[in-house]
């Protein structure tokens, strides 16, 4: 009886020592430097992940650490729940905490900012130049991108919502474009559903075109609704919009930064000095505020405005008032 008791005590002591060693090893911080990441590829097994940790000499007591982690994962099912992605590993993190992180799917997040007023070409360039976006489109033209998206619009101009997008490494270019496209589609539909009455737009697409013009014309955010009001009244009266940003967009690469009288007379589909109505497409990516202004224009009688030179505009109800404002703010320069 005493012998059995002794064996039992020894067994308990050994178990306690083993449990203590397991806890000590699993609680030991890994050998990690600052800004360390680990990428787990799709389908990678727990054993492969543990081998990587060991090969990079991040584990303290590598053999025991691997054994204990594998056993723990088998008992808890943790090894079957790790997710692919790039993970941030910070100094002081234990291997067990790392496995729990791999299970959570909280990967490194990168960001891309698409700015209000950018053209689709500028947005596409930012996507193509981002080091953490997987490039699959190459130098594909807009028509090929539209085909991949599978959407029935004639152009992607103005169709990407300007915002800051967060995404994990490995996200493809087409996925980013689709996300920005879907975000704009939702924002436009929401704005259209809540639009003011008696607007001169045949569709939400026409409102998007107007919003892009308002975006490019606005220097001071407080004037968006006023600028939209001027253009809406012009449409309602059958007047030409006569807005420089559409002319500049139509000139494309031929625009050298200086808009001349001959440019205003050169007819293109985007020249609102020579053509009635709205241009055929948006001219930039309009933000939410521009969408709202285009669909909630300020009331009033102003039909003209001219830049003061400080980002704001002088608004006029009549041509005589406008010409006086031009002489005051433009010709004096």
What is this structure, in a nutshell?
The chain contains 13 helices and six strands.
Q: Could you tell me the radius of gyration in angstroms?
A: 31 Å
> How many strand segments?
6
Uncertain spans: 4-19
Give the biggest beta sheet.
2 strands, antiparallel
Return the average pLDDT rounded to an integer: 89
Structure class: mainly alpha
Indicate the proportion of strand residues. 5-15%
User: Which strand order does the major sheet show?
Assistant: 1-2
Shape: elongated
How many domains make up the coordinates?
3
Distance between the termini: 110 Å
Along the chain, the helix and strand elements come as HEHHEHEHHEHHHHHHEEH
Helical fraction: 40-55%
Observed structural traits:
13 helices, Dna Ligase, domain 1, mainly alpha, 6 strands, two-stranded antiparallel sheet, 3 domains, two-stranded antiparallel ribbon, 333 residues
What does this structure look like?
With 333 residues, this protein is mostly helical. The protein folds into three domains: 29-104, Dna Ligase, domain 1, CATH 3.30.1490; 109-190, no CATH class; 195-331, no CATH class. It contains 13 helices and six strands. It has helices spanning 2-26, 46-55, 62-76, 95-104, 120-129, 142-149, 173-193, 204-217, 224-237, 244-251, 261-265, 288-295, 319-331; strands spanning 36-40, 85-89, 109-113, 164-168, 304-307, 313-316. The protein has a two-stranded antiparallel ribbon. The chain has a two-stranded antiparallel ribbon with strand order 3-4. α2 packs antiparallel against α3 (62-76), α8 (204-217) crosses α9 (224-237) and α8 (204-217) crosses α12. The chain is elongated and about 90 Å long. It starts with a helix and ends with a helix. Residues 4-19 have low confidence and may be disordered.
């Amino acid at each position: 009886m005493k012998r059995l008791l002794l064996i039992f005590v020894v067994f308990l002591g050994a178990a306690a020592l083993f449990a203590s060693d397991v806890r000590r090893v699993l609680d030991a911080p890994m050998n990690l430097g600052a800004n360390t990441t680990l990428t787990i590829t799709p389908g990678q097994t727990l054993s492969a992940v543990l081998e990587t940790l060991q090969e990079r000499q991040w584990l303290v007591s590598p053999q025991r650490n691997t054994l204990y982690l594998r056993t723990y994962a088998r008992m808890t099912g943790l090894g079957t729940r790790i997710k692919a992605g790039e993970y941030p590993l910070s100094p002081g993190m234990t291997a067990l905490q790392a496995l729990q992180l791999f299970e959570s799917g909280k990967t490194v997040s990168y960001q891309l900012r698409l700015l209000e007023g950018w053209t689709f070409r500028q947005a596409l360039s930012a996507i193509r130049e981002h080091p953490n976006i997987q490039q699959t489109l190459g130098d594909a033209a807009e028509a090929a991108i539209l085909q991949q998206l599978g959407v029935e619009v004639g152009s992607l101009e103005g169709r990407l919502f300007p915002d800051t997008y967060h995404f994990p490494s490995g996200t493809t270019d087409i996925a980013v474009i689709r996300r920005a496209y879907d975000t704009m589609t939702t924002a436009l539909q929401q704005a259209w559903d809540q639009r003011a009455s008696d607007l001169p737009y045949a569709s939400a697409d026409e409102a998007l075109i107007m919003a892009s013009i308002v975006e490019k014309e606005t220097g001071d955010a407080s004037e968006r609704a006023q600028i939209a009001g001027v253009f809406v009244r012009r449409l309602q009266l059958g007047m030409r919009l006569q807005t420089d940003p559409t002319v500049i967009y139509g000139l494309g690469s031929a625009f050298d930064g200086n808009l001349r009288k001959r440019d205003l007379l050169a007819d293109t589909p985007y020249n609102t000095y020579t053509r009635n109505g709205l241009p055929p497409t948006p001219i930039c990516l309009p933000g939410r505020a521009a969408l709202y202004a285009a669909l909630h224009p300020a009331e009033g009688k102003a039909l003209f405005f001219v830049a003061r030179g400080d980002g704001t505009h002088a608004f006029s109800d009549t041509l005589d008032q406008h010409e006086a404002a031009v002489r005051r703010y433009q010709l004096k320069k």
